[in-house]
Amino acid sequence: MQTWVFTLIFVLIAAPLQAAPEEADASEERARASFVDQFQKFTRDKNNQGRAKRPDGKVVGGGPKSRFNQDDGLPFQSDLTYHDFSFNSETKAGPAAQPGGQNGQQKPPETKRLFAFVSGHGAESGALGSSTLERKAFELDQKLTKADEQKKDQEEQEGVKYRSIFKITTKEIFEDPAQQAGNTAKAAGQPEEEKEKVDRFELREEARPEIDKVGADSAETILSAARGEQAANDKDALGNGVLLRQAAQEATKALWNSTLANLAQRRINKAIRSGGFQSAPQLSESAPQCAEWQSKAAEIIAKEKDPKIREKLSQELQRMTDQCNQVAGLNFNAIAPKFERKEDGKGEELVFQGPQKEDAFERDSRVQLEMLNKAGKNVSDIPANWQYTRQDEEARMTTEYNDNQPKEGTRTMKEQIESYNQNLEWADEGYDEVATRFKGIQKAKASQYAIKPGTTNLTNINKPPVSALEEAGVDPEQLKQEVAPQTYEQLIQNSKAQ
Questions:
Q1: Which pTM was predicted?
Q2: Separation in Å, CA 144 to CA 83, 140, 154, 155, 163
Q3: What's the whole-number mean pLDDT along residues 474-492?
Q4: Interior CA angle at 309 toward 304 and 313, to 5°?
Q5: Taking Cα atoms as reference points, which of 259, 450, 261 lies closest to residue 373?
Q6: Residue 167 pLDDT
Q7: Which residues contact 474 (CB under 8 A, 6 or more apart)?
Q8: Cβ atoms within 10 Å of 411's Cβ, excluding its own
Q9: How many helices (H) and strands (E) does the chain have?
């Protein structure tokens, strides 16, 4: 039905009544050119996560889209750009260097330990390139950490603690999940099944509203751009649906790419033994590839004066780089990869430890990708060491309108797809009714576009209708279905190719 409506609107705009054929053609061409121009301007908005482009996908320059993250390919100047580490890191906490060291040397800069996923870039000003989200997260980290230190002697709620911007819930799990329900019935004298603890990190209550506001504010620039220049500031005006679908697709791709990058970078850091180095490979936006990390590490080795130590470190570096590349090539749904020594003691091999050994950040990132990859899949069907609830699957959204007023609610992805499919069935009924009244009208079959839950990547659901872009003169061959990168290696290749 969307296709038919768009075509009708396009024709009504493009072809005045009683116009000569050549006038109609010229008017249609002007309408097409106007849409192409609006599409380009819309995709230049800094908070539209994709590159500025034409409807046919051809990238165009201009605006704030001149620099992109090297790991996930997202625009550098977006309010939501986030240069973080998926592992604990350090950031400068004071001046770069201070006088007063021994023999007149300068003191090294002071550093502050940062929790994983808190961006040290947020300590910089906006003028130096930090984003609104980075500054807000860092500000909250500083404020909440200081407040926590002042009340650290207070008794924490059992199983819940607070660190930085996170609320951390801890639960006990059994090594064998089958024993969870029956461990209390063990015979006398028989030892209980060994238990481990598993964490869940979430934004804490004090931080979520402020983080949410950054997202809401950034979305406003996209909504404004979709309304066009004449109605940009009229919040009662309806934005162009095709453009909003374009923004939805780019936002979904951004979520996929950034989650995949963070997951792989954390895996690489955890799966590889550091050996003689201070740490295992640490990939990030500034050094997204294993070879770049290797190059920086080699510079440190070169400063070692003892040739024997230098040789040993070089061998260790090559081992870690090879292993880094191997983990970078793993599919996103690999579970808890780790290099372990072989039984014969000769070298190491990559093993997959399974859900029970996955940490909170790895697990949540992997499960999120599983849910995005097959939209509508039940979270309970995904192997994990945490028992997710329905609330974890829900998204806030406008569920209906009463007297032109939006009603807010929550729905899972599966419920959203089922609602979409139901609307297609109603559209078929409407078409059939029209066809009985107006002879000669070809019946449409809207339900052919139905989506089976748990089968389609969300990036391909949230995309503009192909037919709408065809109306703008785009060759349908240029609108083929995209395949989301499945490995970190593919993600980096895609980022470099764009």
A1: 0.86
A2: 20, 6, 15, 17, 8
A3: 86
A4: 90
A5: 259
A6: 94
A7: 55, 56
A8: 16
A9: 13, 9
